[in-house]
Amino acid sequence: MRKTKVYDCTMIELDKHHSDRKGNITVVENNDTIPFGIKRTYYLYDVPGGESRGGHAHKELSQLIIAASGSFTVTLDDGNVKRTFLLNRPYQGLYIVPGIWRTLDDFSSGAVCLVLASHGYDEKDYIRDYHKFIEYKNDGEITF
């Protein structure tokens, strides 16, 4: 997965069902709406102004990141190219493939970042040092 590129990541339009009287509902289904089965779900909220989240990459994990409320930016980096996405609609998600460095910034007041992940938590899957990430992308080896 180290050869993945930021252009392998994409915005996914999620099904939005609207009712004038009852509001909206959006549905996400394993291996249908998104290209993986969901093994873990978590959300970030009450992120203080000016703070960043993320700042890591995963070797195997895929994610769908959704702004369930409010807005924030996600910057993706494959070691050569960076792309920044503004997430501000609860019916859109950013699909992130393994091997991509991600940073989340510019959280609006009351923002809720919902993350659907393809695997459970595994610390061994994380690359938390950017220089180690570049080593991994270049040759697949990480020296600790």
Our Rg estimate from Cα atoms comes to 16 Å
Strand content: 35-45%
The CATH architecture comes to Sandwich
Using the alpha-carbon principal axes, give the shape. globular
**Helix content, binned percent:** under 10%
Strand order of the largest sheet: 1-9-6-11-4
Kindly state the mean pLDDT as a whole number?
A: 92
Low-confidence stretches: none
What's the domain count?
A: 1
What assembly state would you assign to the polypeptide chains in this entry? single chain
CATH superfamily: Jelly Rolls
Number of strands: 12
Span from first to last CA?
Answer: 20 Å
Helix tally equals: 1
Largest sheet: 5 strands, antiparallel
CATH topology: Jelly Rolls
What is the N-to-C order of secondary-structure elements (H for helix, E for strand)? EEEEEEEEEEEEH
Which CATH first-tier class would you pick? Mainly Beta
Q: Structural class of the secondary elements? A: mainly beta
